[in-house]
Design a protein that fits this description.
GO terms for molecular function: glycosyltransferase activity; hydrolase activity. The protein is of the alpha/beta class and 396 residues long. The protein is built from 15 helices and 13 strands. The protein starts with a strand and ends with a helix.
Length: 396
């Protein structure tokens, strides 16, 4: 099938939704479909046989887009809509796939052009604007809730990315087919770093011989990075040679967190790396003794957890629903979402390296069975075959 995919995201960029979109596209191409992607002007080039990327015109002054809702998304999404409309006018597509708020575009365009519409529900949009602190206005939140329900009810199929989102989608409709495919695909083709590369990285980051605790991802408020920073003094006191590496974040976020670390007197124990390319992630994972996910709120499963599990390294995570949908006490050390909880967890793992190693191995084995590329592709193929049958029936 020839698929028009609409993704209102900076593609490609090293963060959750763009990663997920990349892997869904890759799965579609493996099945023999072709994909035309309509997306933002921002993002690194991606070359995959069977994929064509159509980007909106550059908007002066918009060089990056923060995670979650923002004012910048309004003009960007408007241009995405008109570009998608133009593509449908000049080219014949068998169906449409949409991500996040583009589901609303899919409802409109599906009605105009009579194309089947598959919606990828990465989050509950109304919950997202609350957790990201975009607005506290009850009227606006209610409006977004209504739009989210309309998208789910009018789509011809919905792919939810975790159990919580699946439950939310099912509560909104009794007719639309709902499927769950966790965003668990990881790029298993990335080469492992050599010992020389790992040693060089330790030297460049001036890590010495001390243990390394690694966080990767965005630095939005719901990620709990403030809690993590405030947990470090207690760990630093118990292990003066400890090193925390934080990969990700935008410049303003890093500057604020660095100032916080300096105020707490732990600046020597923390390295802020900023956003790094995907192919460098194995190097940082190899450096780590413990992987961190200090998320403080939300119900969406963090994409990083699947990569963490595959690494075979021990995971320290807060015990909130977004994380326990994937993690358990057998695959991670789960602690309260507080600075004290994160500090006690880190100290416990550092004091018992054999248990920490066993925890990491449990996670790796669990990921191989439940969250491999093979499992992701199998689930994706089942959903696409069912959806394709509906498309062909409609065309007939």
């Amino acid at each position: 099938m020839k698929i028009l995919m609409i993704a209102p995201q900076p593609f490609m960029e090293e963060r959750g939704a763009p990663f997920a979109i990349y892997h869904h596209i890759k799965a579609l191409l493996c099945m023999g479909h072709t994909v035309d992607l309509v997306t933002y002007h921002i993002g690194k080039p991606v070359e995959l046989p069977g994929l064509r990327i159509f980007r909106i015109p550059t908007i002066p002054g918009i060089h990056q887009v923060k995670v979650g809702p923002s004012m910048a998304k309004f003009p960007l999404d408007l241009l995405v809509f008109f570009l998608a409309l133009w593509r449908l006018c000049i080219e014949r597509y068998d169906c449409m796939h949409t991500h996040e708020e583009a589901g609303a575009m899919g409802i409109i365009l599906s009605g105009i052009f009579g194309r089947k519409h598959l919606y990828y529900m990465h989050s509950d949009l109304s919950q997202q604007i609350v957790s990201s602190e975009f607005t506290k206005n009850p009227f606006l939140i209610r409006c977004v809730e209504m739009v989210q329900k309309l998208i789910v009810r009018k789509a011809h199929g919905v792919i939810a990315i975790c159990p919580d989102i699946e439950g939310t989608a099912r509560s909104m409709t009794e007719k639309t087919p709902i499927h769950m495919i966790e965003n668990s695909a990881v790029d298993e083709n990335l080469p492992a770093p050599t010992q020389e590369e790992i040693l060089q990285a330790r030297q460049e980051l001036e890590l010495g011989s001390g243990p390394v605790l690694l966080y990767t991802g965005t630095m939005e408020s719901y990620q709990g990075i403030d809690l993590l920073i405030h947990s470090i003094p207690a760990v630093y006191k118990a292990f003066p040679d400890v090193n925390y590496i934080l990969v990700g974040g935008q410049t303003a976020q890093i500057e604020r967190l660095h100032a916080m670390a300096k105020e707490l007197g732990i600046q020597d124990a923390v390295r802020f790396i900023g956003q790094r390319p995907l192919d460098e992630m194995p190097k940082y994972m190899a450096l780590a003794d413990i992987l961190l996910s200090p998320r403080s709120k939300g119900t969406n499963t963090p994409l990083k957890l699947y990569t963490y599990l595959h690494s075979g390294k021990p995971i320290l995570a807060t015990e909130i629903y977004s994380q326990t949908q994937v993690l358990s006490s057998e695959t991670a050390l789960l602690v309260p979402p507080t600075a004290d909880g994160l500090a006690e967890g880190a100290i416990t793992l550092l004091r018992d390296p054999e248990w920490a190693k066993a925890l990491g191995e449990n996670g790796r084995l669990f990921a191989e069975e439940h969250y491999s590329w093979r499992v992701f592709l199998k689930k994706s193929t089942y959903v696409q075959e069912e959806f394709s049958a509906d498309v062909l029936e409609m065309a007939a």
